[in-house]
Structure formats: C-alpha cells, structure tokens
Amino acid sequence: MTDPSTILKEGDVLRLQVSPQYATIKIIPNNSSEASDVNFPHNLHNAVELFLKLGMVPQAVNLKDRVDIMLERYKSNPDGKSGVRLGQACVCWHCGACGIPKDYAEQLGTHDHQQSSSSSSSLPPPGPCYQCNETNQINWIRVTTPEAGQFLPWIEEAAMTEDQAKELKVKKEKELIERRKAVEASVAAALAERDNTVVHQK
Ligand SMILES: [Zn+2]
C-alpha cells in the first residue's frame, strides 16, 4: 500500500510551478541592512527559490497555496465584493504563510490608506504572522502591477484568519481520512455481505 505522505510530497513538488506574477509581488526590507543585502529576496519569486534552496519545501508550498488563491481572487473577483478582505500582507520566513497579519486593522489603522510609499518607514513592524505568530522573520509584501509597478492591495477571504488556515489544514487531513474510511466501509460491507451469505447458507 502506498504511504499517503509520499503522495502528498509528490503532489507538493508538482504544485511548485510559480507564475511570473510572483516577481511582481515585492518584499519590503525591514531595515537598511536588508535593503543593501545582495542576497535579500526582493520578490515572492525569489522567496520560493530561497525556500527551495534551503530545503524548506513545506514553507514553499504554503507560500504558493496562499499566493495562488490571492492571484485567482484577482481574476475572479477584482472589484472586491463582500466576502473578501483587502489590505497589506506579510510573508513569513518561518512557516511560509503569506497574508494579512494578525490584528491588521488595529495595527495599521491610518497606514491603511498610505500605501504609496516604497520604503518601510511609514509602516509599523510587520506581523505577527496570522498562521504561526512569527514577529521577527517576517516582511511586508506589496502586490504591484506588472507594467507600471503600481501598488495593489492584497486580497483574501474575509475569514482567512488563523482559525481559517488551521481549518484548511484540517480539511486536507480529513479528506485523506475520509478516503481511507470509505475504503474501510466498503471492505466492511463486503465482509458483512459474505457473513450474511454464510449465515443463510447454514
Ligand atoms: Zn508564519
């Protein structure tokens, strides 16, 4: 029997093809030393490369899951109807999560409408990560248009909170369990059928 973890790993590698749009999502350095560091990943394309270089595959997958949902949302719901949340997102180097950080509304407040600055000086410290609470290894990111480099808000499910992220994880695990249960149930049914047949034959 195939180990489910092997299937997931293979699937994860397959899902790691990132679109060129990843390079248009810029990472904002937290300070001048990050800004002048030649190895600093300047966009999410670099971020995925960095994760993979370091063997941090789950983080790369986590990042890709979030970003693909966001890009998809831009295609399907660009006018920001109800059910979505707009803001500025962070990339977390600890878990790979990308999204609007915890306590975003409270923290950013007035900064929310001042997204025209290209430096981090007008922004509060990034984070905490909505998924793992990281506050150190985390940076603000900015979605930009490919042509003019204009800033766009990050767009995500209104309910994409820490709980929501956990739910997503649990859901994936549940699906595996459900699949296994279905197999077990059909085996049990087959056995019961056989037992019944045996009883009736007596
Ligand atoms: Zn995190």
Q: What bound compounds does this protein have? A: zinc ion
- Morphology: elongated
As for the number of domains, it is: 2
Strand content: 5-15%
Supply the number of helical segments: 6
Secondary-structure element string: HEHHHEEEHEEEH
Low-confidence stretches: 1-8, 110-118
Task: List the main descriptive attributes of the protein structure presented here.
single chain, 202 residues, 5-stranded antiparallel beta sheet, two-stranded antiparallel ribbon, 6 helices, elongated, binds zinc ion
Structure overview:
- This protein is an alpha+beta fold and about 200 residues long.
- The protein has two domains: about 5-160, no CATH class; about 160-200.
- It is built from six helices and seven strands.
- It has helices spanning about 5-15, 30-35, 45-55, 55-75, 105-110, 160-200; strands spanning about 25, 85, 90, 100, 140-145, 150, 155.
- Strands 1, 3, 4, 5 and 6 form a five-stranded antiparallel beta sheet that branches. A two-stranded antiparallel sheet has the order 2-7.
- A hairpin with a 6-residue loop joins strand 5 (about 140-145) and strand 6 (about 150).
- Helix 3 packs antiparallel against helix 4.
- The longest helix is centred in the C-terminal third of the chain and has 40 residues, at about 160-200.
- The model is unreliable at about 1-10 and about 110-120 (pLDDT under 50).
- The structure holds zinc ion (ZN).
- The site of zinc ion (ZN) has 8 residues, from loops.
Helix and strand arrangement:
Blueprint: H1 4-14, E1 25-27, H2 32-36, H3 44-53, H4 57-76, E2 84-87, E3 89-92, E4 98-99, H5 104-108, E5 138-144, E6 151-152, E7 154-157, H6 162-201
Antiparallel strand pairs: 1-5, 2-7, 3-4, 3-5, 5-6
Helix pairs in contact: 3-4
Bound molecules: zinc ion.
The site of zinc ion (ZN) has 8 residues, from loops.
